[in-house]
Structure formats: structure tokens, C-alpha cells
């Protein structure tokens, strides 16, 4: 008979192997397609409207998709196809609600950054001072800073690696149900007692870290992460169709219903899967429902400012790079990829039956949102649209210079 310790090691190995290909609530990085080089002469229309080239880039991987774009002239464009689900058959548009998974982390991190801008918290605060004295912490856990939590550089793992988590994950593969009950509970901080920091400081995506962040925010402010986001982000920016309790929104009955795609593995693609519900420490990490219009409003504040001093300071902090590298450089919740002279700062989300993306090119004043109602790894459209927008802009600039000469 295997010992409990050996079983734990075995479950950790199996869970790590299985989750290596499962980015639920993670930042699985997209790959940008090579931009379509303009084959037009300058006598032709110098710049095509996005509706002329975007549909050709779309592969229908979901029952529905909504794409929102902010162009260099600060104009918003929307493109959509499909329906919420086969039963209700509602066409989707920019006001259709989708679950957006880890895009929730971006909102929670930004609310945390507002608290820092207000002087209520500090990026250098450590878990030893941020958590209640009753929480047992290893020596390595005591030294984790607030900044390390929000940039995924704390060294904390993606989630707890144990037999109950493995069992819940295996069930998810067949029924699609939420397997993060442990992280959603207050027991999540118990994982800090035995934490040992990895040798490398490179970013490691951590749902556990953001669950701990939710716990900290509630302990330090008396408010849950979702309430902080609603008051510090949604209200000042004017995002009326965004909520961590979507049932209270008028648009909830018309929401996009989640479907199986690349995951869960043993549910046929295109079958409806259960919504994931969080009520505790995972709500700020993965509980958000929103629409393309509100996400473009959020993106617009990162391109042109919000007019709120504390929020603008928070935006400045979150968009900085804290761990530089060419691909997946670590910002606060955001990630940055560099393609030559173009830098794309983005977030992705995968949860239940949904995939989501928000990407920003601040230098060229572009933003793209992509929402899908299936779990699909082929979440590359957002990056590719931002790359193509730059190609179109360069063609316009070349023709303009040639005409002027």
C-alpha cells in the first residue's frame, strides 16, 4: 500500500502534467499571425476599413464571437457573429454579457493599484504585515510582497497541487464543473505555511496568488474584491454592464451561454457546460461578467486617461513592465509581447465555456477586445488584429508621404 506522502507526490506530478495543457483561469499566451502585407498601390484607397479585412481573419471556433476595436482616431468598431446558444438563439452584439475568467484579475489588480495610489496599501507590503497574525506563514511566504502577488512573481504555484485538487480536476474533464472550491475558500491561506520559493524569480502564473490577494483586500479594507472593483473601477469609468454578480444585470437573461471547446476534454465540442460561480476568494480572480462595449471603455482609459487622478496613477502603475523579456513580460496583471517596434500589452481569460482577450498598443493608440462563448485555445485573433492594424496604418503613412512628395 502506498504511503499518504507518496500518494501526495504522485497526485502532484499527475496534476502538474494534466494542467500543463489546461489554462483554465490562466494566461495561455496567444500567437500573432503574420500581418497581411498590403498589395495595394497608393492610387487605391490608402486605408481599408477594418470590416474589409477582419472577417477574413476569423476562424469560427465558438457559437458566437464579439470583437471590439478602438482605432488610431479613437473611433470604436464592433464586429460579431453567432448566437448565445441553440436554445435561446439570441444574436450577440457589443452589449451581450460573457464570462471573462482571468480578465477579472486585471480589474482586481487595478483596484489594488488605486488603493496604493491612495496610500492605503504599498507595493512593498509583505504577507507578514498584510495577513492576520493567526495565518501561519513559512519564512519564504512572509517575504512575498504585494507587488509580487499582482505581477505573478511571488513564486506561488498555479494552484494547490494535492489529491483533492486532482480528483476535482478529473471530474471537471467529464462534467465541466468548477474545480477551484479550495481556492475560493478561506482555507487557501493554509497553503502558505509550507511554501518554499523557487530558485528562479521568473513569473509563474498563480491563481493561488490572486486568491490570497482577495483574502488580503477583504482583511485590509473590510470589503470583498468585487465591491472594491465596482466602486474604484466600474463606477468612475462608467461600465454599467460589468458585474461579479451578473444576475442583477438586466442583460443577464440574454447572456452568451458557455460551451465546450478545447476543454473539458471529455465533453463534445459545442455542448453547453455549467457556469462557474465564485463567492469567496476567487471572485476577484475569475468571477467577472462583462461585454465588449465596457471592456473597450476600460481599454480607452489606458489609452487616454480617465480624468481621475488616483485611477490614472493606478493605470500608470499597472502598465509598467516589472519583469522584462520579449514575450510575456510581466506587468501588473497585464502581460506584454514585443514584435519589432510594436508592443502589445494584453490579458487573456479562460473559464468554463468561455475565452476572452483584451489587448492594447499604447504607442499607436489601438485596442482590441475578443469575447467567445466556448473554451478555445485558438485565442489568437486579438494579437493578429493589432498586428494588422499597424500594417494598415503603415500603408496609409507610406502612401501619404508619397503623395506629399
From TrEMBL:
Lineage top rank: taxon: Bacteria
Matching SUPFAM superfamilies: beta-lactamase/transpeptidase-like
Keywords for the protein's UniProt record, in alphabetical order: Hydrolase, Signal
EC number: 3.1.1.103
Keyword Hydrolase among record annotations: yes
Molecular function as annotated in GO: hydrolase activity
Class of the enzyme per the UniProt entry, highest EC level: hydrolase
Domain Beta-lactamase-related: 55-377
Pfam family, one: Beta-lactamase
Signal sequence annotation: 1-28
Keyword Signal included in the entry's annotation: yes
PANTHER family per UniProt: BETA-LACTAMASE-RELATED (PTHR43283), BETA-LACTAMASE-RELATED DOMAIN-CONTAINING PROTEIN (PTHR43283:SF11)
Protein name, as recorded: Serine hydrolase domain-containing protein
Biological source species: Buttiauxella gaviniae
Source organism phylogeny: Bacteria, Pseudomonadati, Pseudomonadota, Gammaproteobacteria, Enterobacterales
